[in-house]
């Protein structure tokens, strides 16, 4: 039996906190030794290549799967503690809705199943997308269904919204609309969002916190504003067909060469001095480099390390 008594109000500042979290399917670890946290109120991206463990992490948070190791806390309480389930809403790619229900009946079901239901918010979301209340779900377009699924999720008034590539099947216009809707609803209610996505431009536009997974492990986690500026793109000429030795003082995440020229994304460990051209990478460039280099040393900003200066998230 797990301890459900030790969490207090201070811990609730962390929407998610994983310590040594792991999930094994037969002999293979889908998620291993994951330790990170996400402060409440952030729009966090969950990024990683196919098979990195993103859905597994969301399944552990939503209790669709049980951890094989470690623990996961949601607002300071174990994910399986009584009462935790009412604090989050989950939206996956498949968006299970009853096809024969009308939009209105779907919202009524949301109201009947959820004690804290916010009918006004749910209706505002469907109406702002011109989704007719009397239309049957089976007649809605993919974008309209996604909007209805968002209305169900936000109507629950969750403190934490967990999204597994919810916009993957939308066209660019619908994606932009739903993205704006998500940001404005989350800002209005102070909702924490953890959103898995493969679209780096979408992440750069929407997210202020990053959790990067590769091969089941956390490769990077923390405030985007802290993590991205720790990196520099270095362009120069190789020395004897290799990266200049002076760069070894830094953490080289990724190197690409073309003839005698190299471009390296490095995590600075001090001043960068040499006959090189230095540029500041954007979030997308940093994420791409980490996604292409799953073996790169992990990077967690202090906010993302459980137990580290708790006051830093305030
Ligand atoms: N129910 C399961 N049984 C066995 N293996 C599983 C199961 N679910 C996931 N896995 C394995 O765990 C690993 C992580 O899968 P997961 O779906 O979490 O990755 P993902 O990052 O969400 O990938 P994608 O971007 O493709 O959706 C994969 O190797 C996958 O095959």
Compose a concise summary of this entry.
With 314 residues, the chain is of the alpha/beta class. The chain has helices at residues 54-61, 103-113, 119-128, 142-155, 172-189, 200-206, 224-227, 283-292, and strands at 14-25, 28-39, 43-47, 69-74, 77-78, 88-91, 160-164, 192-196, 209-214, 217-223, 231-237, 251-258, 261-267, 277-279, 299-300. Strands 6-7-8-3-9-10-15 form a seven-stranded mixed sheet, with helices on both faces. The chain has a four-stranded antiparallel sheet with strand order 2-1-4-5, covered by helices on one side. A four-stranded antiparallel sheet has the order 12-13-11-14, covered by helices on one side.
List the helices and strands and how they pair.
Layout: E1 14-25, E2 28-39, E3 43-47, H1 54-61, E4 69-74, E5 77-78, E6 88-91, H2 103-113, H3 119-128, H4 142-155, E7 160-164, H5 172-189, E8 192-196, H6 200-206, E9 209-214, E10 217-223, H7 224-227, E11 231-237, E12 251-258, E13 261-267, E14 277-279, H8 283-292, E15 299-300
Parallel strand pairs: 3-8, 3-9, 6-7, 7-8, 10-15
Antiparallel strand pairs: 1-2, 1-4, 4-5, 9-10, 11-13, 11-14, 12-13
Residues 25, 30, 48, 50-56 line the site of adenosine-5'-triphosphate (ATP).
